[in-house]
Amino acid sequence: MVKQLGKVAVLYGGRSAEREVSLMSGQGVHAALLSRGVDAHLFDTASKPLSDLVSEGFDRVFITLHGRFGEDGTMQGALELLQIPYTGSGHQACAIAMDKITTKRLWQQDGLPTPHCRVLADEADLDGLVQELGLPMILKAPNEGSTLGLYQVQSAPDLAQAYANARQFDRLVLAEQFIRGRELTVAILGEGQDAQALPVIEIVAPGGQYDYEHKYFSDDTQYLCPAPLSDVVARKVMDLARDAYLSIGCSGWGRVDIMLDGNEQPWLLEVNTSPGMTSHSLVPMAAKAVGVSYAELCERILAQASCKVSPTPSSVSTGVKE
């Protein structure tokens, strides 16, 4: 099995605002694959051209890039052109998942529950926002992750500053209804009808602030896995996460973030197509709950690496005259 995986590049680092986390994820995956006997090599896309993947003879890649230029479909598209199999979702699903506005529109179209929202293009769009969404509300940069560019607005006078802060990350800002309740996340492995939801994790952060620091560096955040939910609610949450994952065409692996309100109604927040793989990360935690070690998880994800777009056979007419 390991020999069939060939020479593997672990893509990490990159140029996004999440570079620091990506470096940690990549180092963890690299060490895990080496422990399984895989011929794995670290490859920082910020310092090496992708053409080196071809010249150095890599057979497949494990993507541990987070955020822009790694999780947004651009890297996946480049790897399709190079015809190098890669882990995770294809370029289209990654692009959709990275754009929280498009993701929410697709979920709404499919009848999946997600908090009410409004897209803000300029300050004039702040008018009437409090009346529409209520307080507190969430403002977020729709193309960032790891809670970067996300602000909770507690009072109307704070709205303009929160908008200005979020606007530093993106041209558009997503204003979202605040769901008071329990923060949950569900890891998904596989694709299509074979996609499997792992046990639900509940995140209990100090003061309810699951921010960048509490995600990756603090030991104060509690993770309850499996989450203390009734079997009925847990199944409902897992099924919804799987539906959300499939709704936007995800494959390979991913993680769906959900809020559970006081009536035990789950609300979809976002999908991560290249989740963190650090010591504080949640997909390895969920896998461990079903007896899958970190190293085994990495090898399983790598084994599913593929090109998602088949090249047009030369023998098939394209209808274009030369």
UniProtKB/TrEMBL annotation:
Entry annotated with the keyword Nucleotide-binding: yes
Cited Pfam families: Dala_Dala_lig_C (PF07478), Dala_Dala_lig_N (PF01820)
Reaction catalyzed: 2 D-alanine + ATP = D-alanyl-D-alanine + ADP + phosphate + H(+)
Enzyme Commission (EC) number: 6.3.2.4
Pathway in which the depicted protein is active: Cell wall biogenesis; peptidoglycan biosynthesis
First-tier enzyme category under EC: ligase
Binding residues for Mg(2+) 2: E270, N272
PROSITE patterns: ATP_GRASP, DALA_DALA_LIGASE_1, DALA_DALA_LIGASE_2
Keyword set, alphabetical order: ATP-binding, Cell shape, Cell wall biogenesis/degradation, Cytoplasm, Ligase, Magnesium, Manganese, Metal-binding, Nucleotide-binding, Peptidoglycan synthesis
Cofactor note: Binds 2 magnesium or manganese ions per subunit.
GO biological process, one term: regulation of cell shape
SUPFAM superfamilies in alphabetical order: Glutathione synthetase ATP-binding domain-like, PreATP-grasp domain
An annotated Gene Ontology molecular function: ATP binding
Residues annotated for Mg(2+) 1 binding in this entry: D257, E270
Domain ATP-grasp residue range list: 104-303
Recorded GO CC terms: cytosol
Active site annotation, chain numbering: E18, S146, S281
Gene3D superfamilies linked: 3.40.50.20, ATP-grasp fold, A domain, ATP-grasp fold, B domain
Cofactor(s), by name: Mn(2+); Mg(2+)
Compartments (UniProt record): Cytoplasm
Family: Belongs to the D-alanine--D-alanine ligase family.
Function: Cell wall formation.
UniProt name for this protein: D-alanine--D-alanine ligase
Organism name: Orrella marina
